Amino acid sequence: MLKFTAESSVAAEVVPSPNHNERRDGRKPDMLVLHYTGMLSAQMALEKLCSGKSEVSAHYFVFEDGHIVQSVPEARRAWHAGVSSWHGETDINSSSIGIEIANPGHDHDYRDFPKRQIAALTTLCRGILTRHHIPPERVLGHSDVAPSRKRDPGEKFPWRTLADSGVGTWLAPTPIREDGPRLGLGDESEDVAKLQKALIDYGYGIEATGIFDPLTQDVVLAFQRHFRPALVDGIADESTVTTLHALLKATRKAYA
To answer: Which of the residues in the chain have pLDDT under 70?
Structure first.
């Protein structure tokens, strides 16, 4: 078991995990991926992440009371993202630092994240972003990089609170309206292709086929969980589309 000293001043202890290896192709972390544990017990989740039988791990673990554990050195490749992609990158583990946040998740008693937990997480993230020069738009949720498999950290995660403290990107979503154009599962049009191109420009792993297929719905759901959490329905309504375009403009990403 690799022995090391905690790299963050807010990490209270080191509980090492054997599940890590070298980052591939000399990659340095330039992305931060946030997860929830999705298990009934935080302690059980930490034990799983530190068990050699599980083949999963994260660099950091944040309990609900704000207690922080480091399990993998930041220079090492933790096994947290699984099959995933962002801006065409498919080895997200090699390019990211992963943080597990204790919360039972959607399959159990999904609940609000305590203020003490989020305060500790924010401080942890700020240090990581400073050490590795990670830009705000590359602070992502697991559902952003694996939209067809994952829903975490979910629509209850306070992305705005973190962004207000310099962690991640957030813009006030365009208000939801009952009328206006809507794109959904089964639609096929140039407007669907434009939506898909915008999602690709932002970073999501999707193709511009012009067909609103299940993958497109999964990506829209992931986008809504992160950036328009008031209504997560997989429908690309006016609020969703205009919020996406505003984010593209704010991050200076070209979209035509």
So the answer is: 1, 253-256
| Cβ atoms within 10 Å, residue 102 | 23
What pLDDT, on the 0 to 100 scale, is given for residue 2? 77
Instruction: Note whether residue 1 is domain-resident.
Output: no
- H-run or E-run covering 13: strand 13-14
Instruction: Let me know if residue 122 belongs to a domain.
Output: yes
100 is catalytic: yes
Distances (CA, A) of 109 to 37, 102, 103, 105, 251: 12, 12, 8, 6, 35
Domain end marker among 98, 131, 164: 164
Q: Within 13 A of 123's CA, how many CA atoms are on the CB side?
A: 15
Backbone angles phi, psi at 134, to 5 degrees: -85, 125
Rounded Cα–Cα distance for residues 2 and 114 (Å): 32
Taking the C-alpha atoms of residue 95 and residue 88, their distance in angstroms, rounded to an integer, is 12
The catalytically annotated residue of 7, 100, 178, 190 is 100
Using the 8-state DSSP alphabet, how is residue 67 labeled? Answer: -
Q: Is residue 171 part of a domain?
A: no
Over residues 116-173, the pLDDT tens digits come to 999 999 999 999 999 999 999 999 999 999 999 999 999 999 999 999 999 999 999 9
From residue 253, how far is each of 186, 202, 205 by CA, in Å? 28, 7, 16
Q: Please tell me the distance from the alpha carbon of residue 31 to that of residue 74, in angstroms, as a whole number.
A: 12
- How does 112-135 read in b/e, with b if 16+ C-beta sit within 10 Å? ebeeebbebbbbbbbebbeebebe
- 160, 192: one domain: no
Q: In terms of Cα–Cα distance, which of 229, 68, 247, 66 is closest to 157?
A: 229
